[in-house]
Design brief:
The chain has helices at residues 3-11, 18-30, 35-48, 52-63, 91-101, 120-125, 136-146, 159-170, 177-190, 211-227, 249-260, 266-282, 288-300, 303-314, 320-323, 350-359, 404-414; strands at 79-83, 106-110, 148-152, 195-202, 231-238, 246-247, 333-338, 343-348, 376-379, 386-387, 392-398, 415-418, 428-432, 437-439. By secondary structure, the protein is of the alpha+beta class. The strands form four sheets. The protein has a five-stranded mixed beta sheet, with helices on both faces. It has a four-stranded antiparallel beta sheet with strand order 6-9-11-7, sandwiched between helices. α5 (91-101) crosses α12 (266-282). The termini are far apart. Uracil binds next to α9.
Length: 440
């Protein structure tokens, strides 16, 4: 078999067999296929797409390119959740304790932020002492004792995805639906959970900018999960507006704690309740309405915050910042942003909001950048709100005052204020299962 022939076959719109796909993924990981040939192949996929059979074969090859986690050491059904990435997306910090409080184990591997999107592991590491790299035995022990654990992906998982993602990042081949589906589901299959809930974000802060593309991605991922014998459901949720009010690592943990106490912003609370209810549903805890009631009840009776505190303590973190979020270190500098005119906020370009937060130090400019856990923004006004000229719409936080000018101009550029009140859009656009696409 020659890589040259496989590139040509895909370039000409042909379908590769699963042996051919396994050959190219294994050959690439082992270093027998060079980056330039893999780049050409990825670009051919970008233009010609992949059939369902090719996507399944590639996902399996990516999943098996490194360690496959066996979660048998954890009792009961384990449900995973994956978000395709967004701004202000602190949902894992809220959903994992809710689901655990309802009796379903969460053994989750999460990622770090890159570019304008945040990552759960960075948010957790804003808690002093918190360890996100645990031995397998310790990971199992934390889940069995506290009901949940969230850690980073182990070094040996899905090396094919690590290598291909880095290549896609520099060859303009990230935004391909089959390649995103392979990348995400390869990691999910390797992570060993029984069921998978996918949160596919849609809008200006997401990889998928339209609901149609998001549904297409969701359908491919659900098909891959179900084919691998895992119950899989996807929700298409809004990322045209940042989720909640806080963007930035410790700021997002603070908002997650408020939400677990029942005092969170409505958009964040509603999205989290729906995601949690779907995870409970996948775990067989009841129908969706019953699962929604269970999730709401867990917040009302106060048991969810105890779950988060238990996990933080078990992973070496200082739980006093969760018990009282005033204990979090604060950024030394802040800068208020006023509305530049009177009217309704009609647009918040969410990618730009994420970039503003990164410029303040909350995200990484490059893979190796140090992040400032205290940096970020609090959004006091969002899309649909009426504002008077000069009224505070956001506050930025940083450890270096000179960062404000640039971040402020990006943030101001993200905001549009107009006379007409914008139409309200749903927070959840659709639910995709193996049998149907239910649009809301
Ligand atoms: N997230 C991933 O893990 N992979 C992609 O390709 C895109 C988003």
């Amino acid at each position: 078999m020659r890589m040259y022939d496989l590139i040509m076959k895909k370039r000409n719109g042909g379908e590769l067999s699963s042996e051919e796909i396994t050959f190219l993924i294994n050959g690439y990981v082992e270093g027998n296929i060079p980056d330039y040939q893999m780049s050409a192949f990825l670009m051919a996929v970008y233009f010609k797409g992949m059939t369902e059979g090719e996507t399944l074969a590639m996902t399996n090859a990516v999943a098996h390119s490194g360690d496959m986690v066996d979660l048998a050491g954890i009792d009961g059904i384990k449900v995973d959740k994956h978000s395709t990435g967004g701004v202000g997306d602190k949902t894992t910090l809220i959903i994992a304790p809710i689901v655990a409080a309802c009796g379903v184990k969460v053994a989750k591997m999460s990622g770090r932020g890159l570019g304008h999107t945040g990552g759960t592991i960075d948010k957790l590491e804003s808690i002093p002492g918190m360890k996100t790299s645990l031995s397998r035995e310790k990971f199992f022990q934390v889940v069995n004792e506290t009901g949940l654990s969230v850690i980073g992906q182990s070094g040996n998982m899905t090396p094919a995805d690590k290598k291909m993602y880095a290549l896609r990042d520099v060859t303009a081949t990230v935004d391909s639906i089959p390649l995103i589906a392979v990348s995400i589901m390869g990691k999910k299959l390797a992570a060993g959970n029984d069921c998978i809930l996918l949160d596919v974000k849609t809008g200006s802060g997401a990889f998928m900018k339209t609901v149609e593309d998001s549904i297409a991605l969701a359908k491919e991922m659900v098909a891959i999960g179900e084919n691998a014998g895992k119950r899989t459901v996807a929700l298409i949720t809004d990322m045209d507006i940042p989720l909640g009010h806080n963007i930035g690592n410790s700021l997002e943990v603070i908002e997650a704690v408020d939400t677990l106490k029942g005092n969170g912003p409505d958009d964040l609370t509603q999205v989290c309740l729906n995601l949690a209810a779907n995870m409970l549903y996948l775990a067989g805890k009841g129908n969706l309405d019953e699962c929604m009631e269970m999730a709401k009840q867990a917040i009302t009776d106060g048991t969810v915050l105890e779950r988060l505190v238990a996990m933080v303590k078990a992973q070496g973190g200082d739980a006093s910042v969760i018990e009282d979020t005033a204990n979090f270190a604060k950024a030394p500098y802040s800068c208020e942003i006023p509305a530049d005119k009177t009217g309704f906020i009609t647009v918040m370009d969410t990618e730009k909001c994420g970039i503003a937060s990164t410029l303040l130090g909350a995200g990484r400019e490059t893979k190796d950048s140090e992040i400032d856990y205290t940096a970020g923004l609090i959004l006091y006004r969002k899309v649909g709100d009426y504002v008077e000229a000069g009224e505070k719409i956001a506050v930025m936080y940083a450890s270096d005052e000179t960062l404000f000018a640039n971040a402020r101009s990006v943030y101001e550029d993200a905001i549009t204020i107009q006379e007409e009140k914008p139409e309200e859009k749903p927070l959840i656009f659709a639910r995709v299962t193996k049998d149907a696409v239910e649009k809301y």
